[in-house]
Amino acid sequence: MQIGFKLIAEAFSPKDIVRQAVRAEQVGFDFVEMSDHFHPWLDVQGHSPFAWSTLGAIAERTDRIGLATGVTCPIIRYHPAIIAQAAATTAILSDGRFTLGIGAGERLNEHIVDEGFPPTPIRHHMLREALEIIRLLWQGGYRSYYGEYLSLADARVWDLPETPPVIAVAAGGHRAAEIAAELGGAMFAVEPDPALVRAYQDAGGDGPRYLEIGVAYADTPEAGAEAALRTNRFALGGWKVMSELPNPANFAAASTTVRASDMRAAMVCGNDPSDYVDVVRTARDAGYDRIALMNVGPNMDAFFDFYQSELDGALRKLA
Predict the structure, then answer these.
(1) CB–CB of 133/81 below 8 Å?
(2) 221 close to 270: Cβ distance less than 8 angstroms
(3) How far apart are CA 244 and CA 119, in angstroms?
(4) Which residues on neighbouring strands pair with residue 3, listed in sequence order?
(5) Are 160 and 93 in contact (CB under 8 A)?
(6) Where would a tag sit more exposed on the chain, N or C end, judged by fewer CB atoms within 10 A?
(7) How far is residue 77 CA from its own chain's centroid?
(8) What is the pLDDT of residues 243-253, one digit of tens each?
(9) Catalytic annotation, pick one of 10, 25, 106, 110
(10) What's the mean per-residue pLDDT of the chain?
(11) In angstroms, rounded to a whole number, what is the distance separating the alpha carbons of residues 287 and 196?
(12) pLDDT value for 100
């Protein structure tokens, strides 16, 4: 089991994100993963840097820690050829420490190019084609591909790593878990659902299972819950809402009824190490072995200190 740290690109500047990645390596995390957004979820978050520039800077500033996108969408805002090239370059710059996390996207980020946002079954079909294109380009040489939704014409990625990055496919349901097993090398989830792990493994998946866990470190549970309410209340709407709303204003409107007590019920808040150990144990027991903590508390430096002094050793024992 590995323990990672989620870089919340929607809530911090590019330089802050790089600094947090360096600190995550220093305090003992095994990997960092960051989202690839064009917009933040809420205006109050206030940021959304370009993921690939930021990952390149992180690769140059770190030595050991793994890097991953959590996740990028290679079917609308980006063409999969661009993601194949970006991932290959990041893998080279990081000396093979990079994992390409991909998914079918959210309207929040993909609608900006005004190409529409297809329903889930079509996006899954497009994702299959994107995965085939990425893997084709990683074989080297000039390649062409003509699918139902995506095409590639006489293209070549010139700089390829010795070993292609592992592809972790985001799964919110059984169909996506099957795609992860068939065309990916790992699965990525945001809920500790053992049924997703079973679906992935039943379909032949035998790679790592990534899980993102939200926490709110603070001096008290109440302070943690208030901080989470301010910046992360959008997440309580569930994935069917999160994937479909178009702008931060819509997420703000959809989350007006969320209270601090709801945040406290949804995630670990406060500074009791046993609470953090328990939630990671639950994820491990559900079958996940790459667990990323996403801190939405008010003081990130204090969270890193807490992780180093109180959590790292305790979580290693769970492995």
Answers:
(1) yes
(2) yes
(3) 9
(4) 291
(5) no
(6) C
(7) 17
(8) 999 999 999 99
(9) 106
(10) 97
(11) 9
(12) 98
Whole-angstrom Cα distance, residue 136 to residue 190?
28
Question: Any catalytic annotation for residue 37?
Answer: yes
- Both tokens of residue 54? 């930021």
Note the pLDDT tens digit of each residue in 158-175: 999 999 999 999 999 999
Angle at 104 between CA 99 and CA 106, to 5 degrees: 110
Reading the block at residue 29, the tokens are 């995390």
Range of the domain at 153: 2-318
Annotated catalytic, 39? no
Q: What is the DSSP string of 30-63?
A: SEEEE---SS-SSGGG-----HHHHHHHHHHH-S
pTM over 0.90: yes
Structure tokens at 291: 């667990």
pLDDT interval class at 240 (50, 70, 90): confident
User: Burial code of 130-159, b = ≥16 C-beta within 10 A, e = fewer?
Assistant: bbbbbebbbeeeebebeeeebebeebebee
Question: How many whole angstroms separate alpha carbon 187 and alpha carbon 207?
Answer: 7
Percent pLDDT > 70 in the chain is 100
How large a percentage of the chain has pLDDT more than 90?
Answer: 98
Token representation of residue 239:
């994935």
* pLDDT of 239 above 90: no
Rounded Cα distance between 108 and 126, Å, is 18
Amino acid in position 315 = L
Total length of the chain: 319
Measured CA to CA, the distance from residue 103 to residue 74 in angstroms comes to: 8
Distances, alpha carbon 54 to alpha carbons 20, 40, 51, 74, in Å: 12, 16, 5, 18
Q: Is 261:247 a contact under the CB 8 Å cutoff?
A: no
Tally Cβ neighbours within 10 Å of residue 122.
15
Q: Up-side HSE of residue 85: CA atoms within 13 Å toward CB? A: 10
Angle, nearest 10°, between helix axes 120-137 and 80-93? 50
Set 37, 39, 111, 125: catalytic member: 37
**Domains contained in the chain, number:** 1
Instruction: For strands 143-146 and 151-155, give the pairing.
Output: antiparallel
